[in-house]
Known about the structure:
This protein is α+β, with helices and mostly antiparallel strands. The protein folds into two domains: 26-73 and 108-433, Up-down Bundle (Outer membrane efflux proteins (OEP)), CATH 1.20.1600; 74-107, no CATH class. 67% of the residues lie in helices and 12% in strands. It is built from ten helices and six strands. Helix 5 (126-192) runs antiparallel to helix 6 and helix 7 (257-278) packs antiparallel against helix 9. It is rod-shaped, with a radius of gyration of 44 Å.
Amino acid sequence: MKKLLLLCIILTSFRTVAVAETSLDECREAARDNFPEIRKLDIIKATSDCNLKNASMSWLPQVVIGGQFYWVNNVNSLDDIFANAGPISSYVFHYVTDRILHLESERPWQYMAGVSLTQNIWDGGASALIKKSAEAEAESKEAEVEVNLLAVEEQVDEVYFSILLLEQRLKQAEGKIDVLEDNFKKLRNLYQEGFASEIDLSKMEVEILSAEQKVDEIKSEIKVFRMSLSLLTGMNMADEELAIPAEPVSSSGYQRPEFLLLENRKKMLGLKEKKLDVELMPKIALFADAGYGYPNRNIFANLTGHAPAFNTQAGIKIGFNLSPLYTRKRDNTVIRNQMDYLDVEKDILNFKFNLERHQLIQESERIRECLQRDNRILELRTKLRNAAEKRLEEGEIDITELLKDINEENDAALQSSIHQLTLLKTLHQQTRIGM
């Protein structure tokens, strides 16, 4: 039995060296890359770049080209000047304007086509605020994606450790079959020599068949979990060797994406609050207009003819928009309420994760205490089983007691393996709390 155990250890060691193992981190990374939501990060970055470039364009000259054709009901008319004059005065006026000066009234049908150019000198900080808002929005969306990706990684952890636990159960079950078969051979020899009964053989055989059935059940469960891991990672994990993770390092400095998401949302609210001030700031810009049409800006030129002409103007303009004052107080109240809401959300997360962290710490301490006794329990169970086998070799047959010792030794070994893997799983969960 000792030789068989040594051979198994040697073969296992050789296999570990020869076969490449897939780590938990590799599975997490593969799951992130395989999850469709990961593609959102590239889209978010591309959108953010476009928004930032658009914000930078606000300082470029703003050009508007347009035209209009319209009718005016009340135009500059020469008849309006002497509308209340007497007949002689009116005749003299019309004679002078028509025959001597050749003046004409404006026409009601008018038109204009031109270009307007505006160059911002100071926008009150609006463009800088737009850039910061675009960056904050991108960071917030990235944090949302990270929250969902973290949930996928945690699902990978659950499946990964479930496979490791099942494989430990499988190893123990197969080891139990080896022990049972070894004792079955001894019992069969005693039966042939007339020292054991057929009932003893049947008890041992039933136990072997039950153990084999358990092995088949465990293999079926492993297959299901490995298929789930394959779907999560996008890799074929049917026959991959999974490495047992080492104890993780301290989680100090790690911040969960849920908190980053809240911080980014609060940052966006702060920018909204700043926008209320920016809206009240004066806007200063240079402007220049050029147009071609009728009437001319020179009223005297319009009186001497109806030909279209060029018109230009340029200067500097300052504008204050005071309409935001109507809702400023209520807008501030809404923003403060939203910030208070996010503070409550943060307190809820702190409470939740702090409770979970303490539970995990207590659980890891409990498991460590169990592990301290596991080796001693297994050592004693192995001695009891060896003693029962020795009695069997000497002809003192008590199959029930022997089977009981074999099962209890197997359970002790399995419990030790479960405790070790559960401790690793608990420690890895602690690192994901980030507190």
